[in-house]
Amino acid sequence: MTQDNKQVSGEDSLIARYFKPLATDPGAFGLVDDAAVLKAQGEDIVVTTDAVVEGVHYLADDPPETIARKALRVNLSDLAAKGAVPAGFVLTLALRKAEDAWLRPFADALGEDAKSFACPLLGGDTVSTPGPQMISITAFGRVPAGRMVGRVGAKPGDRIMVTGTIGDAALGLDIRRGGAVAAALAGDRVAQDELIGRYHVPRPRNALAKAVRAHANAAMDVSDGLAGDLAKLCAASGVSAVIEAARIPISPAAARAAVAIEKLVAGGDDYEILCTVPQDHIAALIEEAARVGVPIAEIGTVTAGREQPRLIDAQGADIVLSRLSYSHF
Amino acid sequence: MTQDNKQVSGEDSLIARYFKPLATDPGAFGLVDDAAVLKAQGEDIVVTTDAVVEGVHYLADDPPETIARKALRVNLSDLAAKGAVPAGFVLTLALRKAEDAWLRPFADALGEDAKSFACPLLGGDTVSTPGPQMISITAFGRVPAGRMVGRVGAKPGDRIMVTGTIGDAALGLDIRRGGAVAAALAGDRVAQDELIGRYHVPRPRNALAKAVRAHANAAMDVSDGLAGDLAKLCAASGVSAVIEAARIPISPAAARAAVAIEKLVAGGDDYEILCTVPQDHIAALIEEAARVGVPIAEIGTVTAGREQPRLIDAQGADIVLSRLSYSHF
């Protein structure tokens, strides 16, 4: 309607300037509509949602590039563990103010990841907040009908496997906060940077998604700590497990920090895939992981029963943990 | 794994206690998995996302019941305007603390709406925040392939129609804040309560979704003010429009407040459907609206051209607005 001030509203102009280039899917309608269209193409749509909050999941002075990548990648990690191929995402951005110096690198990095993971922006909502910034992403993937890999499905006798290394991100966060790990690695800038990098930017294992679907009975991504996440998977499947601490894959940087195993398995932010695999599928999964360049390790076995999973040392004795995982409440 | 403290983590227990009863769709897996499955059943999935922030979209002392209903209904309203039938939603809840006195009525009201609109909870994420609470919902609907009603599609000659009444929620917010409308309606408690009710709890027009799909060339929901939202629809469709101010439907309560038309058409939170309808479909749409009990009015006409839509008075003179709509930035 006729308006004295012909400027586009700040919100629309912000979306057009920063986020329209990311909306490459025809179903996004260039972000000019109120909704997006997702074609299922005969497959199931897998839906996952994860939010990151300033001061909780990232630090206020973290680079906007790493915040963007982390916000998307924590969702991509869920899709990978469910055996789903990324199809797109919607973004809710709660901002205190709209600053080019923050939004430009944020949007550019988000766009790079959207492209490299083939997961285009489909839509979103940009709102103002007087409080901490927050980025909430809902991501979509596709699996053949009925083929999402669940937490339910682990069977006694399955081997428990995990990708990458465990605990790095928790140590990286400790370093960022100037904790004990920072002191332990005081002279080792390379190790510190590597661990901080793991905290800032997860490496979701989407390359392994199809192999997980082909070979795993159950899977989830490790986001709140290996110990607690395995306990959740076992509870959902109605089984127990035994994990050999010495088999848990640890990075050289984490090894140099020389922290207790509890710090590694109860920390969060790993974003690796935890899965249970029948014996006769292990060789094929290992071969496929090698082909796509994802490290994977056998760390234990699913057992019958309903008790909490056990973590045992080299002598077979139980290692008792004071906490299993990160919880918000 | 073995843990000294056997308590379920607060976050998981919170989700199980409050939100599992809402997860009635088999694709939600009872909220024990990391992701949900959405079946497309040969149709397109329509995706929309809208967040509400404490102190911005609702007031800190608003009842948790109305906050829950508003958070879901603003998304249901988008689905209605797109001609989509609700299929489910995912919820991201950023809370300062987990209090039963707030969460219980919030979850119960959300569950009631999820049931009455046939839009079950599919999944979510619960995070802690040191700042204002925030509820971000991504909702899904289904339309026959290629049949989502877009903002693009309005044609010169189409009549412009709008459901319900316009401006009530903006006046309700003014009353809640003790503004000029509160003074104007000082002795009229009934009108005040009605307007506040429209601000607290939108009435999304999902009953009209199929008729919109059958009869409208273009549609959107009015969420940021009729004037600005019509301008967006026209810009997307490459057309202009003329609206007759006297035809804009106003509630009796709003009429009694006797505010300028600008206050009504540039306010937000209406959550009515704005659509453009070819002349030969108007009778059928009006008939269908009457059948499902949704008031609908013709307020103007789509015209050729690219200029801003005009709002005219009874003499045909332009009414100039100082602002078109609410914008966050």
Structural notes for this entry:
- Two copies of one chain form a homodimer.
- Chain A has 329 residues and is of the alpha+beta class.
- Chain A folds into two domains: 10-143, 60s Ribosomal Protein L30, Chain: A; 159-312, Alpha-Beta Complex (Phosphoribosyl-aminoimidazole Synthetase, Chain A, domain 2), CATH 3.90.650.
- Chain A has eleven helices and eleven strands.
- Chain A has a six-stranded mixed β-sheet, sandwiched between helices. In chain A, strands 2-5-3-4 form a four-stranded mixed β-sheet.
- In chain A, strand 3 (85-95), helix 3 and strand 4 (121-128) form a beta-alpha-beta unit.
- The longest helix of chain A is centred in the N-terminal third of the chain and has 18 residues, at 64-81.
- The N and C termini of chain A lie far apart (48 Å).
- Residues 1-8 of chain A have low confidence and may be disordered.
- Strand 1 of chain A pairs antiparallel with strand 2 of chain B.
Based on the model shown, name its key terms.
329 residues, 2 domains, 11 helices, 35% helix, homodimer, alpha+beta, 6-stranded mixed beta sheet, 4-stranded mixed beta sheet, 60s Ribosomal Protein L30, Chain: A
Highest-level CATH class of the largest domain in chain A? Alpha Beta
Class based on secondary structure composition and strand pairing of chain A: alpha+beta
Portion in beta strands of chain A: 15-25%
Q: Multimeric state of these chains?
A: homodimer
The assigned CATH architecture of the largest domain in chain A is Alpha-Beta Complex
The largest pleated sheet of chain A is described as: 6 strands, mixed
Number of spatially distinct domains of chain A: 2
Q: Low-confidence runs of chain A (pLDDT<50, min 5 residues)?
A: 1-8
Major beta sheet, strand line-up of chain A:
7-9-6-10-8-11
Give helix % range of chain A: 25-40%
State the separation between the terminal residues of chain A, measured CA to CA: 48 Å
Indicate the radius of gyration of chain A in whole angstroms: 21 Å
CATH superfamily of the largest domain in chain A: PurM-like C-terminal domain
The name of the CATH topology of the largest domain in chain A is Phosphoribosyl-aminoimidazole Synthetase, Chain A, domain 2
Please provide the ordered H/E string of secondary-structure elements of chain A. HEEHEHEEEHHHHEHEHHEHEE
Shape of chain A: globular
Please report the number of helical segments of chain A: 11
